[in-house]
Design brief:
- The structure is a homodimer.
- Chain A is of the alpha+beta class and about 200 residues long.
- Chain A has a single domain, classed as Glutaredoxin, CATH 3.40.30.
- Helix content of chain A is about 55%, strand content about 10%.
- In chain A, strands 2-1-3-4 form a 4-stranded mixed sheet, with helices on both faces.
- In chain A, helix 1 packs across helix 5.
- The mean pLDDT of chain A is about 95.
Chain lengths: ~200, ~200
């Protein structure tokens, strides 16, 4: 056994949708273990003066069309346009950090992204927030109380600091044995990298 | 027969290497015709205040590592670091426009990128410039005289204006029946799109 692959992601990043929805199946098929690591990509992008699409209308339009095409290719339901940016992005990610600590992060992340992209309900806001927590088998009242404690905010901040130390600059990112892969298009390469390590082959 | 796919590219863009080297084989296999359209991506990026990697050292480092990994995956020889940015990028692209008009653009583009990435000779400068023209079966003296005429510069400018009208914002881009695909990672999707059109299937 080697270390699991780290999946660094921020709810609120549109391209992250394609990774969240496809990662579990692809990782399972390859026999690669995944550690879900929510962080605040937006904070790092502001720091690096590199907020994608912010003042780039042409690129933003392209992004949505690109996501729509890729989702169709992968059979993922999407109903554009969807609310963007998310008004309560931090809330969505504080819950994700808590979920990661308790072991129900994939179920929550998948549920909230599906509601955002297929039902047009913004992640981090009601009803998406509570319904996604419920879909992950948890009690919204208990989870939201904890997510709104200072501890959850500090945990998200600590994870973001860790991401920065590793050299992560955007979501989604994958780290396999110290090797960084960025973007949903690198999902397969990252899994393959880890799979080769697990098999004892050079990357 | 449908219209060919348009391959919009600028010599000088590192990621374009992966498209230039792989496009001919993939297009041929799919039976898709390609029109090579050199343009000045840098000019459009300056205009849009969106010069990639310029003041983003972390992302630039990642880009080179990413290209290196992808090149290895595709069996393309690369010896990093290579000279970047290209000091005579415009010269490289004026020759490309001329080559596109005369029908020897793919051979020239492939030769100049190979020399840049495998031999560390900057495209657009000697010896890369003349040797790549020769590899494409042309006489460097004749070509360089024409490429340095005002006509070639105007042709490059006109192509860049056309790219902008279409909504292109970076290199490499592919346009299949008005559908825009951006980046080397969309090469296969673009070819598939055109291939489905040629077969009379919806994209």
């Amino acid at each position: 056994m080697t270390a699991p692959i780290d999946f660094w992601f921020s709810i609120g990043s549109p391209y992250t949708f394609l990774a969240v929805m496809r990662l579990p199946g692809i990782a399972e098929k390859a026999g690669v273990e995944v550690r879900w690591r929510p962080f605040n990509a937006h904070a790092l992008q502001i720091e690096a003066n590199d907020v994608p699409f912010a003042d780039k209308p042409l690129k933003a339009d392209y992004m949505w069309r690109d996501i729509e095409r890729r989702a169709a290719k992968f059979g993922l339901p999407v109903r554009l346009p969807i609310p963007y940016p998310l008004p309560e992005m931090e809330q969505a990610n504080r819950v994700a950090v808590l979920a990661a600590g308790e072991g129900w992060c994939p179920a929550y992340a998948i549920a909230t992204y599906r509601r955002w992209f297929a039902d047009r309900e913004p992640s981090g806001s009601e009803p998406n927030l509570s319904e996604s927590i419920k879909e992950a088998g948890q009690d919204p009242a208990r989870v939201l109380e904890q997510a709104n404690s200072g501890a959850a905010a500090r945990a998200l901040e600590a994870a973001t600091g860790e991401a920065k130390e590793i050299g992560i600059f955007g979501s989604p990112s994958f780290v396999a044995d110290g090797e960084l892969f960025w973007g949903p298009d690198r999902l397969e390469d990252a899994i393959e990298w880890q799979h080769n390590l697990d098999q004892g082959n050079p990357g």
